[in-house]
Amino acid sequence: MRVLGVDPGLTRCGLGVVDGTPGGPLTVTAAGVLRTPADAEIGHRLLLIERGIERWLDEHQPEAVAVERVSSRYNVRTVMGTAQASAVAILCAARRGLPVTWHTSSEVKAAVIGSGGAGKAQVGATVTRLLRLDAPPEPADALALAICHIWRAPALNRLQQAHAVARPAPARARLRKDTIR
Description:
CATH architecture: 2-Layer Sandwich
Helix content: 40-55%
Largest sheet: 5 strands, mixed
Shape: globular
Active site: 7, 68
Binding site for Mg(2+) 1: 7
Subcellular location: Cytoplasm
CATH topology: Nucleotidyltransferase, domain 5
Structural class: alpha/beta
Number of domains: 1
Order of helices and strands: EEEHEHEHHH
Number of strands: 5
InterPro entries: RNaseH-like_sf, RNaseH_sf, X-over_junc_endoDNase_RuvC
Radius of gyration: 17 Å
Organism: Streptomyces hirsutus
Strand order of the largest sheet: 3-2-1-4-5
């Protein structure tokens, strides 16, 4: 499975592509950071992020996208920028029909390190070891997201299937003529 991990941010949007299977070896395919100028208009910054993510999707052809779920522990301005960058990544994946899964920072740390409260240095060291790299990668968080998804995807799929069987989908509502399709 090839997964694009997205650590969203308006100034720095981390991207990492990892190939692997649960319990099998992991390989980093690409890692990098999309940067936007802090003094540019928000629309222009989001457009730069969209173009960058589209290039990564074209180049690396992931099967799934894992995005860090926005946390409300930051100030509102930071949360807004992170949420906007996250939405761009989700939109890019949706255009291609790619499944998107959100993982909180603590879920990623718990899956990859074993402790949801681990620090950035520990994330970097663990990702370096798991991917058999010589030095901590930048961005380690985006790679950790991709690793978390590879390891958790089978369990998440089984859980979704169990929910679908236990609770049938509601009948689809009729669309009004003025509804956007």
